[in-house]
Amino acid sequence: MRILVTGATGFIGGAIAKELLHRRHNPIGLARSASSADALLDAGLDVHRGDITDPESVTSAVDEVDAVIHTAFNHDFSRYTASCREDGQLLNALARKLVGANKTLIAASATIVGRTGSPITEQNAASEQIPRSSSEAFLSYADDGVRTGVVRLPPTVHGDGDTAFIPALTALAREHGVSAYPGDGSNRWPAVHRDDAARLFCDAVEQGRHDARYHAVAETGIAFRTIAEAIGEGLGVPCERIPNDQAESHFGWLAMFAALDNPASSEWTQETTGWAPREMGLISNMRNVDYFNTPSL
Q: What pLDDT digit, counting tens, does each position of 215-230 carry?
């Protein structure tokens, strides 16, 4: 299949593109700049020039492909709500373009779209009160024949080249000289290795279900304190509790994520698709990948 991949130069999208090539598909990477286009060509991908902030520039590729995998997202958390809204607008534009085409649209979402405290499952719809739920509104186009699906990603997608939450927490620990956790640190983060997540995206686009929610979850919930302890061990700094009312001053924009209790199940995903995680878990990966030897972010 010819498959348009947005975010193909990114941490997750790059792994998806590599896996698609391994499966003998023909991925076409979305490139905003000439340098991104060159990187995609060097990786063996065809290129479509466009920008996720300009939906028409992305939807113009739809007629030339058999499916779309959308992973690009603006990770400027100072405008997180606006980024979520824009992501939803792009996905709706793509889905409208696909009506009547008998093609598949798979998008990245997040396990944080649902309830907290007990494991979120694939049967739990996204809460409209959570900004990231905008990325799942397009699923309704399944009623118009579009094969729609989302792959919900945990807060921690880890592996070589990670630039997200674990490096951000590591940078904070290095800056403050302490690896901190809010409250008692019992709140849980699910996790997955990026290569396992990439395989699930590829399974989802190949299987082409309608209105499907998949969970790329290898570990249902790791206590945040355990993550903080691994960072402290890796940097050689103490791991300490901080009161909840001091979390924002310590964690900054990461405070709301550091306090998340977001366990998630992938039981339905594994039973339905045959997908199963193969790679090492988060804590082992943190000890075996260069999370601590060089400054993060």
A: 999 999 999 999 999 9
